[in-house]
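Holo model, 6-phosphogluconic acid. Inputs:
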Amino acid sequence: MPHLSVFATRDALMQAAADRLEAALREGIAARGAACIALSGGSTPEPAYVALAARDLDWPKIRFAMVDERFVASDDDASNEKMLRRALAPALAKGADLLPLFSSGSPADAAKRADAIYAPLHIDAALMGMGDDMHTASWFPGAAGEALSDARSVVAVHAPMATGCADRLTLTQSAIARAGRVFLLISGESKRATLDAALALHAEDAPVVALFSDCERQPEVLWAA
Ligand code: 6PG
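Output:
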């Protein structure tokens, strides 16, 4: 298991994730006058986002990008944007910006619009999650499409097995590889075992391993039982 940080409780895990995101934001602001972090959806990370948004940061200098999105309107319960707006509300109210991936029209058109916004971003850190099927972002086994091979930052994928919505918009592996730091936040014994198993497989079948493909820049895995 590469670079695994273990926490005693889920609360400690969420605070540690918030600590790392805060550090990346502070360093980005110190280096460039502004900072950007890319955040995953799903159910695991929301408490980390709530913890982060309660902190005292120079919010008008901060942008939240999204790691992936289900192709649904932003008021749909499956929308990652909806979860992020709820969790990050105090930071957004103080001037932070959230860059949606979803826009109306076809998934391909929305991906093109989002790519124009996301391609120039300097992403200081990306917080990734992992599903029980070994997907990360919206890179699904056997359905990652161009996400693992395209030089663009944002692509549309169709993954019939995906929870919430089969049509997804996702940052590509190349976009995540350009992030200053990458964290993988998982909890529970079963996800740890799933990650161990994934590390012996190929990215096509276990897309989460694509995060570990560069030996020089391994993500930090944050885990609690
Ligand atoms: C999504 C996510 C996704 C997530 C994993 C883990 O929209 O589904 O961004 O990649 O990180 O599915 O989700 P859980 O935290 O709900 O297990």
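The pocket of 6-phosphogluconic acid is lined by residues 40-44, 67-68, 70, 80, 129-131, 135-137 (CB under 6 Å). The two ends are 15 Å apart (CA to CA).
Archived with the compound record.
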